[in-house]
Amino acid sequence: MSDSTTLPRPGSAPQTLANPPGRGPASTFGCYTFNLEAMQQRLPRPVYEAIYATIRAGQPLDTGLADAVAGAMKDWAVEHGATHFTHWFQPLTGATAEKHDAFLSIDEGFPIESFTGSQLIQAEPDASSFPSGGMRSTFEARGYSAWDPTSPAFILFHERGCTLTIPCVFVSYTGEALDKKTPLLRSMKELSRAAVHALGLMGQDVKRVVATLGAEQEYFLIQREFYDDRPDLQVGGRTIIGARPPKGQQLEDHYFGAIDEVALNFMAEVEAEAWKLGIPIKTRHNEVAPHQYEAAPIYQPIHVATDQNQLLMDLMRRVAKRQDLAVLFHEKPFAGVNGSGKHCNWSLEDDQGRNLLDPGDTPESNVQFLFFLVAVLKGVHRRSGLVRAAIAHSGNDHRLGANEAPPAIISAFIGERLGHILETLAEGKTVDAVKDEVLQTGLEVLPDVKRDNTDRNRTSPFAFTGNKFELRAVGASQSLAMPVTYLSVAVAEALDDMSGRLEKLVESGEPWEDATLAVVRESYRECRQIVFNGNNYGAAWVAEAEKRGLPNAKDTPAALAVLSEEDTAAFLDRYGVFRPHELKARHVISLESYSRALEIEAIQMLRMAKTGVIVAAMEHQRLMAVSIQAAEELGLAAEEQKAELAHFVDFVNGTFRGLNAVRRALRDAPEDEASQERARFIADHLKPAMEELREACDAIERSADSALWPFPTYHQMLFQ
Ligand code: ADP
Ligand code: MG
Fold first, then answer.
1. Which of 110, 134, 209, 677 is the least buried, fewest Cβ under 10 Å from its Cβ?
2. How confident is residue 15, by pLDDT bands cut at 50, 70 and 90?
3. In angstroms, what is the span from residue 470 Cα to ligand 2's centroid?
4. One-character DSSP codes across 580-644
5. pLDDT at 521
6. Closest-lying ligand to the alpha carbon of 458?
């Protein structure tokens, strides 16, 4: 009998482990971040305490301390090998931006390593080429990046060096937000204020409330060689042409299946790096489509989670390249195959770590929970247009409402039981009437069944999942900043409204529990239209939603219109998130990037059709014709072959018709690049023309000699 230790190990023998033996995720976690632990070790106590108060309690930081922090940060970074620092911010492009400077100055002829407080606090990148939506003209292009001490600095490695990277906001000389982070921080402040006030009315002494966010990131992985041969993937992130394979995901045999070796190696390396950067990646699994996966971290305050998601996507791109893979974040990289989203799990946490959306033991006794739950529903009901606008862009248009992702109608799922409780309340009955609703399983081994009281509804765009909401409509490639900004400020507004009523009732002598329930009842009555527990994918829901008066903005140009409404501008101004011209700038930039993205795709498509598809098609056509002719010359009947060729010729003609349709739409689009009219025209004319051209190209791909086909196929990309 052989010794069991000599038996081969399952799976292939590891070459090098991304995470070496004995080093669990916790042992290296955050080692490349200048986190509280590193600060405590390196900063004088009063400086550490001041910065701790800023991070934990949101108190403004005394800029006089910046020199001390900068010195410690630089020493720490240099010890890790850093030679440079960079401010790192999120301009309105949706990506991140950085500009590196060495820790070097010349002091009276001698080189020294230096990094001052003022370099930490503020920098002035040459920002003239970032989109500003007209807020800055290029000749006064000054944009300033300013240190955000609440998000930890980190060290980013490349093969031959590393850089101290400092999360920042990006603002103009006069303080306008030129980025996605500033409005996010502004919304957090308002939400905290409103929630603290509401809690105070309910007798809770709380100083600060933060919104929390855990974003589940979906993505595709394909082999690099295929990506390199698909200019559409490189330019627009999706396949603009490509015939669906006979087997797509119909069998759904990939979902939660065993993760293949290539993907696991990718995940292991991403995770090992993410942990060192303090990104708490926790979960990994296969998604619905072949080669589609998901990564999810443990939740964080929304601004940290937003930064970390940007960083994670960046890491994934780099690791993919290193491993001869390409990672795709586009919402719909492959037509007819499940698309990718970014599910935003969102909740509220007070300064003692209590989750305000956790019902506790019995929801009906927990009036405070009901108050916050209804505030979220009310906020999203009132501002659903803004939530819809935040997820609107050309990529996500392929996904929303396409019977696989939540539809473009914003509604909320709260489950049968909570729905029943709130409906009972709204009808004026007492809470006692629903007491027996508490789930009794009689199984003591099942802890907290009562808390996880929501059955799952995968079709809802905004679902309550027991102790948090999950916004599922965000696209996989999108920054999380705007969706959570609008969500947070919408809830702040609802809380303020409800607190106002509560205050009056409490002042008139009503006990706070009764008063709170009264406000819950009244507020729920106003927003119950948004609650829908049924199937959001069905056509019946579209009709029902229309009856309820819920907006259904079908595409990006329609969804963005809310940004130009006066009521929107007044609301966001009142809550300090955007001044009217800041909002206008965002509207303009969103319209422009929508139109541009589609134009670029269209131009790329023309090129691929002309230089690839049509060349292959004509060659195939010629070969068929020559061969039929040869058969006829021999006196053989070839009627069926001719009919087949006629079919094929029709596809080829179809590509020319499609080409012309796309060219016409490009030519006739209204001129003003940032206008609603141009975006509308592109949605109504360019997109259908591209569809027409695609159909013809895909028909050719299905019929022509595969050896002539110039691009990697869906089958290669998804099954190899
Ligand atoms: P699933 O949705 O598959 O049931 P989980 O509920 O465990 O998975 O969590 C999914 C995501 O929700 C994770 O990123 C997790 O950290 C996050 N999450 C859990 N609790 C909260 C919370 N209170 N606030 C925000 N996100 C949360
Ligand atoms: Mg989930």
1. 110
2. low
3. 7
4. HHHHHHHHHHHHHHHHHHHHHHHHHHHHHIIIIIHHHHHHHHHHHHHHHHHHHHTT---HHHHHH
5. 93
6. 2
Name beta bridge partners: 99: 87
Of 57 and 186, the structure prediction assigns the larger pLDDT to 186
For domain 31-177, the CATH superfamily is Glutamine synthetase, N-terminal domain (3.10.20.70)
**Start-end ranges of CATH 1.20.120.1560 in the chain?**
593-719
Give the residue range(s) of CATH 3.30.590.10 domains in the chain: 188-578
| Alpha helix stretches (DSSP H) within 356-508 | 367-382, 384-390, 394-397, 415-426, 481-507
- 593-719 belongs to which CATH class? mainly alpha
Atom number in ligand 1 closest to CA 347: 24
Q: Is 446 in the pocket of ligand 1 (CB under 6 A)?
A: no
Helix/strand/coil for 67: helix
pLDDT tens per residue, range 528-579 = 999 998 888 888 888 999 999 999 999 999 999 999 999 999 999 999 999 9
**Contact present, 345 and 465 (Cβ < 8 Å):** yes
Cα–Cα dist 376/384, whole Å: 11
Distance from residue 259's CA to the centre of ligand 1 (Å): 22
CB 191 within 8 A of CB 575: no
Q: Is the CB of 347 under 6 A from ligand 1?
A: yes
**CATH 3.10.20.70 residue spans of the chain:** 31-177
Ligand 1 pocket, 309 CB below 6 A?
no
Given the CA of residue 357, which atom of ligand 1 is nearest to it? 23
Q: Does domain 188-578 have CATH number 3.30.590.10?
A: yes
Burial per residue of 431-446, b for 16 or more beta-carbon CB atoms within 10 angstroms, e otherwise: beebeebeeeeeeeee
> In the block, which residue shows the tokens 């002719």?
629
Q: Is 480 in the pocket of ligand 1 (CB under 6 A)?
A: no
CB 240 within 8 A of CB 601: yes
Q: Which atom of ligand 1 is nearest to the CA of 214?
A: 14
pTM: 0.93
Q: End-to-end distance of the chain based on CA atoms, in angstroms?
A: 40
The CA-atom distances, in angstroms, between 679 and each of 25, 391, 597, 665, 674 are 47, 16, 11, 12, 8
| Probe target for ligand 1 pocket from 210, 212, 299, with the most ligand atoms within 8 Å of CB | 299
Q: Ligand 1 within 6 A of 212 CB? A: yes
Ligand closest to Cα of 211 equals 1
